[in-house]
Design goal:
The chain has helices spanning 3-8, 12-22, 28-40, 63-74, 83-98, 106-119, 121-126, 135-138, 142-149, 158-161, 221-229; strands at 164-168, 177-181, 206-211, 244-246, 256-260. The chain is of the alpha+beta class. The chain is globular and about 65 Å long.
């Protein structure tokens, strides 16, 4: 049995259980992001997105080392039969070259393993081994990233123009952000192509919330029904805040960082 064959033994339920059991051990910077990644890519991303699908995980900064650790594990003769143990062992191996604690590597390791399962070893090995972030973003500390992801402080000049909150669409692109008036939906600031709701929900504005989920309006019954009808699984943070939302319903009352499923 090859390593990919071994990974293929685990079904969607096994991966979901593995992430659930590992969540308390994943660094807070990536707990929500890891859950969002698995909600968007339940069986792994397309092969041509192997190295880019997980750029919104802080652990993506260690993608080259994690990839090498996975390729090394693939050469072993046998592997742990319990999926969380397999993920943990590979993440632990990667700590030797990253010089960071395992909790920062668990999310990116799990995502990379599921990517390998779908793409196959040849495509995985051929994928870029470079971090897919600009240098200024690559060097940001966990503290800097967490501070930028979520805040309840309104934008300046709020007294003149009403409260406005920052919505970030990509942490690696400075211009990928906008200010939303308190009470307006995130969808009101999305590009026109992602606002094509029409008579029924197209799912084009499905977003993953990686920071500030607690600052979004509660999910309504209508929003939950539309997500369910589109086949989107329900994902919540440890504190119970929904992480998969429809931008046309979610209203920020603080700064939030999101990921667009459509991109």
């Amino acid at each position: 049995m090859t390593f990919v064959d071994h990974l293929s033994v685990y079904g969607p339920g096994d991966w979901a259980h593995a992430i659930e059991s590992l969540t308390p051990k994943i660094h807070p910077i990536d707990r929500n992001a890891t859950r969002v990644w698995f909600a968007f890519f339940p069986i792994g991303p397309n092969p041509d997105r192997l190295e880019t699908s997980h750029t919104f995980l802080y652990g993506h900064r260690f993608w080259p080392q994690v990839k090498r650790a996975i390729l090394a594990a693939a050469k072993d003769a046998q592997w742990p039969s319990v999926l969380p143990e397999l993920i943990s062992r590979i993440a632990e191996h990667a700590t030797r070259t990253t010089q960071v604690d395992r909790d920062q590597l668990l999310g990116i390791t799990a995502a990379s393993l599921l990517s390998l399962r779908r793409a196959g070893l040849e495509a995985f090995n051929a994928s870029s081994s470079a971090v897919q972030l600009p240098s200024w973003s690559h060097v940001r500390s966990i503290r800097q990233v967490r501070r930028a992801r979520a805040s309840q402080r309104p934008r300046p000049l709020g007294a003149l123009f009403g409260k406005r909150f920052r919505v970030r669409f990509s942490e690696a692109t400075p211009e990928a952000k906008c200010d939303v008036v308190d009470g307006a939906t995130i969808g009101s600031a999305l590009p026109p192509a992602l606002q094509a709701c029409g008579d029924s929900c197209s799912g084009a504005c499905i977003i993953g919330v990686i920071g500030g989920a607690e600052y979004l309006s509660p999910m309504t019954t209508v929003e939950a029904r539309q997500l369910q009808s589109g086949g989107q699984i329900v994902v919540k943070s440890v504190s119970g805040d929904p992480l998969i939302r429809l931008a046309c319903h979610a209203r920020p009352h603080g700064d939030v960082s999101i990921v667009l499923r459509a991109t």
